[in-house]
Amino acid sequence: MADPDRDAPPEVLDSKRDATRYQVLVEIAARQPAVSQHEIADTIGVTSQAVSDYVRDLVEHDYVDKRGRGRYNVTKEGVDWLISRTDNLEAYLERVTSDVLGSVEVDAAIAIDAIDEGTEVGLVMRDGVLHADPNGGTAHAVAVTSGDPGEAVGVTDFEGVVDYETGYVTVVRVPQVTDRTPVDPDRIDEWHSGDQLVATAGTEAYTLVTRAGIQPDIRFGTVEATTEAAVRGVDLLLVVGPDQLSHHTTKFREANVPHEVLDAADL
């Protein structure tokens, strides 16, 4: 059953006057005790006279205590009024975000073939990127924009599950520079298959990979980037220094990413 208090617009949105009154009280609370009505007027986009009228009204309702010229404090009653209106406003915004905006969420996918707006398309994952296939798929959606092959199109009204397997990460630990354990860069070819993305974490790892003639696809933010890529079905070779190894493997375990750890010094 719907919650009427959550579904109904909050009182503060009942009229422009209620909304402005709320804004003025918020600004007084933020600026107290020295309050410039002119600054409040500029901030919320009304005249100084209008702010003066609202302040007088707030004082009369005991929401604001006037301590002298230009000096005001929000009273306990004023704070309670703000909290009640803010709680209602937050609940309303939560409903708008989850129920309203969530129901019209639009994602982007790459068109495999030409797609017309309004047509149903299948959704498939290729190289970690969502693609829209007019010939169908295990999941489907409705295109909200048109596009030629290779262009991004907007899709919504998702149903089904996109069918793909999580990628596999081969993690190669390289020794720290102080270990003085040489690793032949030509051995990178033993660990790297041509369809893997290559990521390096740490200077020792980057040096080894580039000496092998490979420019890594990922060098920064590798903990999040490698995990996200694997979750999207991409296989990776991660060459990593010992000081960063646990950060990556912990994230892999949390995301259920299949992986193995090899030690370059032992290979």
Quick overview of this protein structure:
By secondary structure, the chain is α/β, with parallel strands linked by helices.
Q: Into which percentage range does the β-strand content fall?
A: 15-25%
Helix content: 25-40%
Order of helices and strands: HHHHEEHEEEEEEHEHHEHE
Weakly predicted, low-confidence segments: 1-9
Number of strands: 11
- Determine Rg (CA atoms, Å): 29 Å
Helical stretch tally: 9
Distance separating the two termini: 63 Å
| Spatial strand sequence of the major β-sheet | 3-5-4-6-7
**Main sheet?**
5 strands, mixed, barrel
Residue-averaged pLDDT: 86
The secondary-structure class comes to alpha/beta
Write down the overall geometry: elongated
Secondary-structure blueprint of this entry?
Blueprint: H1 4-7, H2 16-31, H3 37-44, H4 48-60, E1 64-68, E2 71-74, H5 76-101, E3 107-111, E4 120-126, E5 129-133, E6 139-143, E7 152-160, E8 169-173, H6 188-191, E9 197-201, H7 203-211, H8 222-231, E10 236-240, H9 245-254, E11 259-263
Parallel strand pairs: 3-5, 8-10, 8-11, 9-10
Antiparallel strand pairs: 1-2, 3-7, 4-5, 4-6, 6-7
Helix pairs in contact: 2-4, 3-4, 8-9
